[in-house]
Amino acid sequence: MAAARTTVLKYYALRAVSTPGFMWPVSILYLVSHDVSYATLALAGAAAAVLTVVGEVPTGYVSDRLGRRNTIVVAQVLFGTYPLTLLFARSPPTVVAAFCLLGLAETLQSGAVTAWLYDALDAHDATARYTRVEGRGQAIRLAVLAVTMVAGGLLYALNPDLPFVASTVMGSTGALVATTLPATGEGDGSDHLGVREALTVVREHLLSRELRGFIALSSLAVAVGVSARSYVQPITVDAMSPLLAGVTVAGSPLPETAVLGVVYASFTGFGALLSDRAAGVEAWLGTRRTVLCSFLVDALAMCAVLVEPLLVVPMMFVHRGVVSVLGPVKRSYLNEQLESVGRATVLSAVSMVVSLVQVPVGLGGGVLADRLAPEVAVAALGALLLVTTVLAALSTPVVFEERETAAPAD
């Protein structure tokens, strides 16, 4: 039991330092301020998604062969490098290259962390605690993220480059922490899938009755959320500018980016609170209703931005809450359908589907934002998710069999 607790604590430590949050409230604003268009940002996001489509299954297979821990270390090194590349990203090719680096890091890590945690708990006969442990780990990550976001907004006001340098330092620390994780899924090679077997396992799981509808709707929801978040910073700054006019601190104008950092930290902290209660929400509503209700609420919040742009702030509270609750629930459900051998490969294939859906959704949102307005793009994305969720609820169950969930205990 002590060994299991040590493993969980190391996982919590990784989650605390694995996300360089200093740059997140200002990264899009920074690029736009250097004349990077929304269309270029959408193109870069689509290119990263294509890279993920091409690389997800191979990198998941590499994770199963190389080992989850080693894959996580490499991914964290790339996460630490990404913030520095944004300092030099100005033209479309350089912006695309920077986003592709992030895409590669996410591709390497997407299946590895989830597979590592599930197998690490399985080694101690504690998989029933997965949703609870994963939810608390995400809560810790979001709490640290909230603090660094506030600091990032203030650093940006001092020097726009500072949040990116700080993010690199923190992201690199994640690689050091990852080296301390116990190895899982390493084996001696005899229990690994061959390439042909891996492809067969991926096909069977993606098309299975238990997963196909769940993956389809979840992929659309993730794609909509990623695209909508791209426009939060400029919408918020534009909406707040009239409200902050004439506001001073110690005789100096209050920087909008400092307020933006606090806003981001607020809804991130809210997400941390809900993430820690993900297992309780699932036990109360059941998996299917948790998924459907969350998507409906998220979609309605996005649509509301068209009525009043400043509603983008409560929208992000809702969205962060939805993501924080659904993340552990979805990953727990997926893991229960998979065997340890090939787990990372299949989870990476799921991420590949998400990225494939993200390409047209992201490009469409970018065109709408440039031709009309960012708030129109956000509302259109919300309408897409709303209609799709309603149709899914009326036609085919999203989750075909309810799971027995463990009582929230740590």
Structure characterization notes:
With 410 residues, this protein is mainly α. It has one domain (2-181, 194-395): Growth Hormone, Chain: A. It contains 16 helices and 2 strands. A two-stranded antiparallel sheet has the order 1-2.
Helices and strands in order:
Elements: H1 2-17, H2 27-33, H3 38-66, H4 68-86, H5 92-122, H6 130-158, H7 162-178, H8 195-206, H9 212-229, H10 232-244, E1 248-249, E2 252-253, H11 256-275, H12 278-285, H13 287-304, H14 312-336, H15 343-371, H16 374-395
Antiparallel strand pairs: 1-2
Helix pairs in contact: 1-6, 1-7, 3-4, 3-5, 3-15, 4-5, 4-7, 5-15, 6-11, 6-14, 8-15, 9-15, 9-16, 11-14, 12-13, 12-14, 13-14, 13-16, 15-16
Protein name: MFS transporter
Pfam family, one: MFS_1
Transmembrane segments: 12-32, 38-59, 71-89, 95-118, 139-158, 252-274, 295-317, 346-369, 376-400
Give me some keywords for this one.
410 residues, mainly alpha, Growth Hormone, Chain: A, two-stranded antiparallel ribbon, 16 helices, 2 strands, globular, disordered C terminus, MFS_trans_sf, transmembrane, MFS
**Approximately how much beta-strand content do the residues carry?**
under 5%
**What's the oligomerization state?**
single chain
First-last Cα distance: 12 Å
Mean pLDDT rating: 78
Number of E strands: 2
- Kindly name the structural category: mainly alpha
CATH architecture label: Up-down Bundle
Give the H and E element order. Answer: HHHHHHHHHHEEHHHHHH
- Which residue ranges are poorly predicted, with pLDDT under 50 across at least 5 consecutive positions? 187-191, 406-410
Query: Outline, from the CA principal axes?
Result: globular
Q: Domains counted in the coordinates: how many? A: 1
Strands in their spatial order, largest beta sheet? 1-2
Largest sheet: 2 strands, antiparallel
Question: What would CATH call the homologous superfamily?
Answer: MFS general substrate transporter like domains
Question: What is the rounded Rg?
Answer: 20 Å
Query: Which class in CATH terms?
Result: Mainly Alpha
